[in-house]
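Dear support,

I submitted the protein below through the web form. The confirmation email said the job was done, but the results page showed an empty box. After a refresh the structure appeared. I'm attaching both so you can tell me whether what I see now is the final result or a partial one.
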Amino acid sequence: MINFKNCEILAPAGRVTDIAPLLEVGADAVYVGLSGCSARPKSSDFTVDEIFEILAPIHAEGKKLFVAINANVEGNKIEALLDTAKILDNGGVDALIVSDYGLIYRLSQVIEHAQIHVSTLTGVYNHEDVHMLKELGAKRIILSSDLYLDEIVDIIDHEPELDYEIVADGGICFNSNRQCLLPHVGQQEAFHVYCQESYRLKRGDAVLGKARRIGNCPGKIHRTLGIYLGMGIMSFKVEGRTNSIDYIVDRIKDMAESRKFYLEHAEEIPGMMHYIRREY
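What the results page shows now:
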């Protein structure tokens, strides 16, 4: 039996000052990037001291804090990173979001309290992969954003005891996140998601007009939240650590309003999944 009331709205934070407004509008958990180890610019990452600065007020509200360690980390820095992870773990961080298989394995050997969440950048596409990650110690899988509904259901049906998360508001890529370097080129401040930029067609110096967008438009699934609840998704992530707080707050409000609606109509959710065989 799925307990829809357990569903979580997960908000991004790129600044210490983001925390209070995000909790106020309905975020159940916040995720931040660990400085030097996150697939976003340094200016939107948090130092260990900043993480502990925001941890106490987040926990005081009964909410959770997750820390992303989802950039490629050089081999000679792994031991220092593991030491930092142990500090975060002992300090009460609720989860570490990790994208590298080897690092997931190493963290599973030293982490005692925090959960290990598998980043969407890992590229999880099937239940065999999920089973292996579960054996490595993962507690939550953040599914690849280019999966079809029936593929998501197949994964959850095979490994129902794990927690599952999707990108509910943000980038939906036609390519594998794992194979594309453009959005995750490192820690430079000249940070661009090139497939989401606006381009113009030119012939010599003459501008011919606007070019078609390379990447897909950002996905926003809050209007169809009930379908994903029916599949067993329990965490809905809003992307955008580099976005303005006003933009992020509006996205969290959208998700919170939709959750309120679907929880008030929870008995109707199984009916949305009539084409997929599942017991509730």
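Response: this is the final, complete result; the empty box was a page-load delay. Residues 183-190 have pLDDT under 50 and may be disordered.
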